[in-house]
């Protein structure tokens, strides 16, 4: 029997608050983004230029709306995800004829989700459930407005549109930084939706390289993620940072490693046991959230600096050894 056909008890996370799965770096990046001078003004100009309806039409013009009659198996999985994550509403979901394995959540007042048809072809049922849960997580965490703004600014920058001046370019870079952190939050939401850690980690492997089950090895992929995070010389570390500039997502190997870390820390099991913040609970003070977010960024920075220092020492030792031999 294949893994996707093995019956599992699905835990309904009733009234779960999105902060239960949100990565602290997501909140830190968003707080920093909102402090950028001119951010609100650029936001108003972009959406004043387009408005809700044209944005929806632009994303949905070449897509099929999912329902009980169109892509019924996807519709069934989608309803399960909404129930599992305690979504307060149903959001329109579409399938777009696009070979790239991906999906997106967009909109302003009325969020909607678009699945690329390439995802349907490559991912099995549980992996697709993870992907749908990931996008629902974006909606529930309130990411869609800024994600939509990121896509629009990227397109305008590509076209050389005059609205994308220096201020808007600075905001775009900050949006991309936040967007990468927001992906880490929604990866956790996707895991909670499917409640299958192996399928979630396999999804990252397929998003990275495609391939069929007989061609891939998840353990090898996770070792690759560990090697990427912990090895390299000075030039490698610099290029790791530069490679992310201009991208909307973290590298898939790093997403897999981050999700595995969250599982191994016990947070995933804790939520499944029902130990999570609820929408009706008194919310954590903003200062506490910000402190947790700052700790996450500090730990990331310290990790990079440790790698940088190790790489410099290694390069120095190799140079000294070379001089002794000469």
Which short descriptors sum up this protein?
326 residues
Describe what this molecule looks like in 3D.
With 326 residues, the chain is mainly alpha-helical. Strand 3 (103-106) and strand 4 (112-116) form a beta hairpin. The model is unreliable at 232-246 and 301-312 (pLDDT under 50). Strands 1-2-4-3 form a four-stranded mixed sheet, with helices on both faces. Helix 1 (24-34) runs antiparallel to helix 8 (166-194). The chain has one domain (13-325). It is built from 14 helices and four strands. Helices cover 64% and strands 5% of the residues.
* Structural class estimated from helices and strands: mainly alpha
Could you list the spans in which at least 5 consecutive residues all have pLDDT below 50? 232-246, 301-312
Shape: globular
Radius of gyration: 21 Å
Task: Note the main sheet.
Answer: 4 strands, mixed
Number of strands: 4
Distance between the termini: 63 Å
The helicity comes to 55-70%
Order of helices and strands: HHHEHEEEHHHHHHHHHH
Task: Give average pLDDT, whole number.
Answer: 79
Within the largest sheet, what's the order of strands? 1-2-4-3
What does the secondary structure layout of this molecule look like, with pairings?
Blueprint (H helix, E strand, L loop, with lengths): L23 H11 L4 H12 L1 H9 L2 E3 L6 H13 L7 E5 L6 E4 L5 E5 H6 L2 H16 L3 H16 L6 H29 L2 H13 L8 H13 L3 H11 L7 H13 L2 H6 L13 H40 L1
Parallel strand pairs: 2-4
Antiparallel strand pairs: 1-2, 3-4
């Amino acid at each position: 029997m294949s893994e996707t056909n093995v019956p599992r008890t699905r835990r309904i996370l009733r009234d779960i608050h999105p902060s239960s799965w949100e990565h602290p770096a997501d909140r830190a990046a968003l707080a920093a983004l909102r402090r950028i001078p001119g951010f609100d003004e650029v936001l108003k100009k972009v959406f004043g230029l387009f408005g809700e309806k044209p944005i929806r039409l632009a994303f949905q013009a070449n897509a099929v709306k999912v329902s009980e009659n169109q892509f019924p198996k996807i519709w069934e999985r989608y309803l399960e995800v909404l129930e599992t994550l305690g979504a307060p509403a149903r959001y329109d979901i579409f399938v777009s004829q696009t070979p790239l394995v991906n999906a997106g959540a967009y909109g302003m007042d009325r969020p909607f989700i678009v699945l690329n048809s390439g995802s349907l072809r490559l991912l099995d049922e549980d992996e697709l459930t993870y992907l749908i849960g990931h996008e629902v997580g974006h909606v529930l965490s309130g990411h869609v407005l800024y994600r939509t703004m990121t896509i629009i600014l990227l397109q305008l920058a590509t076209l050389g549109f005059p609205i994308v001046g220096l201020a808007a370019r600075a905001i775009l870079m900050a949006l991309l930084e936040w967007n990468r952190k927001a992906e880490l939050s929604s990866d956790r939401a996707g895991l909670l939706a499917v409640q299958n850690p192996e399928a979630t980690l396999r999804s990252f492997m397929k998003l990275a390289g495609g391939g069929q089950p007989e061609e891939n090895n998840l353990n090898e992929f996770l070792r690759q993620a560990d090697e990427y995070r912990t090895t390299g010389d000075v030039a490698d570390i610099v290029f790791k940072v530069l490679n992310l500039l201009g991208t909307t997502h973290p590298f898939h190997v790093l997403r897999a490693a981050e999700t595995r870390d969250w599982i191994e820390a016990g947070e995933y099991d804790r939520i499944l046991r029902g130990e999570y913040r609820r929408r009706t609970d008194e919310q954590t003070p903003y200062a506490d959230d910000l402190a947790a977010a700052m700790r996450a960024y500090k730990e990331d920075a310290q990790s990079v600096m440790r790698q940088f220092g190790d790489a410099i020492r290694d390069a120095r030792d190799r140079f000294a050894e070379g001089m002794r031999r000469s």
